[in-house]
Structures are given as structure tokens and as C-alpha cells.
Specification:
Helices cover 2% and strands 35% of the residues. It contains 1 helix and 26 strands. A hairpin with a 4-residue loop joins strand 3 and strand 4. The longest helix has 6 residues.
Length: 357
């Protein structure tokens, strides 16, 4: 991992500082246990101070190799002016037992931190999970408090009632989560993520076993928590989340009642609405809160689709397709998350952006 601090003189960037971290894996280890091009997009975040916070992977004792079991994650707090770590950092994340299950603990060599990180108060949260078709489904949310005292906490994902059991053997090849780049969503007190296994408040598609068997799992698109001042129903639904995966289905959920597993009519999905889309999404949903409220989905090798918020006959929120982009996205993974900017929040000035290289 290489960070560069650039200053701009006119339109010319000048290199001021650079920081190279030991985060490469040796050729002897499976590529998915380390860093791959276009597979690890977790830029640092900067809070109210002049520090950037991020997780970086390497081997114990800064070794150049050591096998999967010796892979570790450190958490850094870097001064953005000179790229030096704060006193007391980096902090080792590995070996910490999960708060909700002391028998489960963080094994950095078998997991990746692909999404961005989220700051709630003085704690930075990172989402970790097995990459694609290596290792097991175990996923951990790790939180590192950055002040006043540094402390590492974590929560391991648990199997849903009636869902597939958790695979504890890290060498068993059962795949894992595939979140691409979205940070865990938050309402200021809760985190919303997609995962191969379920935490306490969860949603699991009724067809999850078949989805996993066909490599069409949900975890490739993380959760978007929509603005509750716009995206809501008149039937008591006050917070809405959207998630989508490799099966092309976008699930519109009540953020205060995610839906569980097979709790809908006829043991189907207990969600507000399901959008059937043409292909996988490996990123997430974007939104535009003005002019009635819209969401955007960019599918692999397909146009970006725009959906407008409305209400069904029971006054529950629903989304209807209203437009699509004239061009297709790249026919591969890691197309960026749709983003909309405006001029001073004025209606009619929205510009749609998506990274597609």
C-alpha cells in the first residue's frame, strides 16, 4: 500500500510525502488472502482532526512472508501533513476475541477489509470477510476507538435461525463476503452491512442456499441507508435501506425491521419491495434526495438504472424505474458506487457520477 501526499500548484501536482506500508503477500500464499488490483478499496477517512485512519495488512514482525496464519491487520492513524503515525499507533487488530462470542477471534490472514471505513463518535469501524471463493463465511466488524484511550472491539457474524451454520474452520473453502467499496452505513448509533452470515437484526433471502451455490450471493453490494426525511412511507416505515448482490435483486427494507429469514408470505422475503435487475451489482446503490427521491443501480455490463420513490396501495414505499443511462458499464467487477452532486442543493442541478475504468 502506497500513500502519497500531493500539493497542487496551478494544475500541476507536486509530491510532498509518501508512505509505503508492508501489506503485500508472498507468491506462496493464495492471492485472495492479500491485496489484489481492484479488490481492496479502503481509502482512509479523516475526522475533525488532521489524521487519516485505515487498516493495512501484512505479516507478523513486518516479515516478507509467513503463510496465511501469520497474516495480520494493523490499524493506522496517520497525520495527513507528514504521513507519520500518531503516538500509540499502529494498533494490532489480530487476536482480539469477538465481544458477542469469545470463542471467535480475528484472524487477519484469512480475511480482507475491502469496504471503506465508518466513523461513529470516536470509534472507526471496518468490515472484514473472506474473499470470494477462499476461506469461510466468517465475518467480523472491528472497531478501534481513537480517543481518549485506544481500544479494539469486534463482533463476529452469527448464523440466522434456519440458515446455514457458521463454518469455523478457516481453511474450509466456502467462500465469503464480497463487499466492494461502500462503507458500512450508519444512522449514528447502528451499523448496516451485508454479510455471508447474520447478526442479531438481519435479512436473509429465502433463496440464499441456491444463491450461494450458484455464486449469486448477496454480499457483493453493501447497504445504503437512505435519508429518512425523504425516503419513507406513510404506513409507519420511517427508515429505508437498500442492498443488492450478484443475483441482480435489489431488496428495499425497513431499517427498523430488516425482515429476518423466510418471514414473508408463503415463507418468502419479508421486505418492502424487491427490484428485479438485469445483472449483478458489485458496489451498492446511490441516491438523490431531491425532486421526489431517486435511487440508482449500476450493474455489471449494463446501463445504470434510475428508480423514483412512490407509494403502493398500502402506503408502503416502492421504487419504479424511470430512466436508464445510454451507455453500459464495464463488463467486470468493481464499477463504482453511483453518486449525485448538486449546486448548493438546488433542485434541477443534479449531476450523476460513477467510476467506471
Amino acid at each position: 500500500m502506497l500513500f502519497r501526499l500531493l500539493m497542487w500548484l496551478g494544475c500541476i501536482p507536486w509530491l510532498v510525502h509518501s508512505l509505503a506500508l508492508v501489506d503485500e503477500i508472498s507468491d506462496a500464499d493464495p492471492p485472495q488472502s492479500g491485496y489484489l488490483p481492484n479488490h481492496n478499496m479502503q481509502p482512509p477517512i479523516v475526522g475533525s482532526s488532521s489524521f487519516a485512519y485505515f487498516f493495512a495488512k501484512g505479516y507478523r514482525n513486518n516479515a516478507a512472508s509467513g503463510g496465511v496464519a501469520n497474516g495480520i491487520y494493523n490499524f493506522h492513524a496517520v497525520n495527513i501533513l507528514d504521513l507519520t503515525d500518531r503516538p500509540g499507533f499502529p494498533v494490532l487488530v489480530d487476536g482480539n476475541n469477538a465481544d458477542n462470542d469469545p470463542t471467535r477471534y480475528f484472524v487477519g490472514g484469512a480475511i480482507l477489509q475491502r469496504p471503506l471505513v465508518t466513523l461513529i463518535g470516536s470509534t472507526v469501524y471496518g468490515a472484514f470477510g473472506g474473499h470470494c471463493d477462499l476461506f469461510n463465511y466468517t465475518r467480523i466488524i472491528a472497531g478501534v476507538s481513537i480517543e481518549p484511550d485506544v481500544e479494539v472491539n469486534s463482533m463476529s457474524m452469527e448464523a440466522a435461525p434456519g440458515g446455514p451454520p457458521v463454518t469455523l474452520d478457516i481453511t474450509e473453502q466456502k467462500g465469503g463476503t464480497a463487499d466492494i467499496c461502500m462503507a458500512p452505513a450508519t444512522d449514528g448509533r447502528r451499523l448496516f452491512v451485508t454479510t455471508g452470515n447474520e447478526p442479531y437484526e438481519y435479512f436473509d433471502p429465502y433463496e440464499c442456499i441456491g444463491m450461494d451455490a450458484g455464486d449469486r450471493d448477496l454480499g457483493s453490494g453493501d447497504v445504503a441507508l437512505l435519508d429518512p426525511s425523504v425516503y419513507r412511507g406513510t404506513n409507519g416505515v420511517t427508515r429505508i435501506t437498500v442492498t443488492i448482490g450478484k443475483n441482480g435483486k435489489a431488496y428495499i427494507m425497513n431499517a427498523d425491521n430488516s425482515g429476518g429469514f423466510k418471514l414473508g408470505p408463503g415463507a418468502t422475503d419479508n421486505v418492502l419491495w424487491t427490484i428485479i435487475s438485469p445483472n449483478a451489482v458489485l458496489g451498492g446503490a446511490g441516491s438523490y434526495r431531491l425532486e421526489g427521491g431517486y435511487i440508482y443501480l449500476t450493474h455489471v455490463g449494463e446501463p445504470t438504472l434510475a428508480y423514483k420513490l412512490g407509494l403502493d396501495q398500502k402506503d408502503a414505499p416502492l421504487f419504479s424505474k424511470v430512466e436508464q443511462s445510454p451507455d453500459n458499464s464495464a463488463g467486470r467487477v468493481d464499477v463504482g458506487v453511483p453518486t449525485v452532486t448538486t449546486y448548493k442543493g438546488q433542485p434541477g442541478t443534479g449531476i450523476f457520477w460513477v467510476t467506471d475504468v
